[in-house]
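PROTEIN DESIGN WORKSHEET
SECTION A - STRUCTURE
LENGTH: 197
TOKENS:
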């Protein structure tokens, strides 16, 4: 018996022997499984298929078909992502734009999705986050200038990391601290504090 007859077929050799129809079915099956778990952008699916070794022309064909039947919809994905991440994770517009672009959503869809967040809604969410954080840090001595500045920098930094613009973060933190501390304190310049983060 020849040694070639005893060799098992490797996954790589099996993959190379697939017909175009088998590649299509395999790629479609993978996409449907991934889409069943959560929504994905077209770029995310393309990258996942590439990692699985699916030929590019097969991937594009499958992705075109899934887009045609609305199983892939980057505009809808962006709107859902923005709504969820803004509401539940407290992300600001800037952070959401970065997240969506990393997922391959084009600028037009990003802008459209971000337009659903009003200025008032963003300010309200930033206020809630700052108030919540300040509530947990209720041991701050507001008469101590160094402690005031440290608390201010931490709050502004927290909001900035979540994607809120420096001016908005500064304004919200100033309001929250004034309301919570009962003191009219002088806050550091937002330009000076934003460089610390």
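SECTION B - SEQUENCE
RESIDUE ASSIGNMENT:
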């Amino acid at each position: 018996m020849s040694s070639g007859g005893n060799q098992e077929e490797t996954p790589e050799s099996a993959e190379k022997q697939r017909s175009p129809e088998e590649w299509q079915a395999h790629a479609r099956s993978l996409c449907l499984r991934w889409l069943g778990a959560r929504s994905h952008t077209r770029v995310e699916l393309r990258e996942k298929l590439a990692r699985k070794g699916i030929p590019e022309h097969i991937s594009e064909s499958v992705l075109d078909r899934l887009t045609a039947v609305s199983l892939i919809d980057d505009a809808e994905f962006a709107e859902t992502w923005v709504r969820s991440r803004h509401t539940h994770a407290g992300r600001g517009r800037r952070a959401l734009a970065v997240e969506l672009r990393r997922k391959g959503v084009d600028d037009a869809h990003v802008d459209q999705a971000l337009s659903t967040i009003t200025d008032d809604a963003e300010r309200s969410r930033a206020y809630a986050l700052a108030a919540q954080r300040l509530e947990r840090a209720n041991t701050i001595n507001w008469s101590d200038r160094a402690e005031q500045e440290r608390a201010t920098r931490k709050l502004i930094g927290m909001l900035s990391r979540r994607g809120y613009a420096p001016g908005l973060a500064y304004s919200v933190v100033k309001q929250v601290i004034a309301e919570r501390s009962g003191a009219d304190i002088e806050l550091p310049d937002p330009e000076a504090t934003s460089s610390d983060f």
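SECTION C - NOTES
Confidence is low (pLDDT under 50) at residues 1-11, 193-197.
The chain is about 70% helix and 0% strand.
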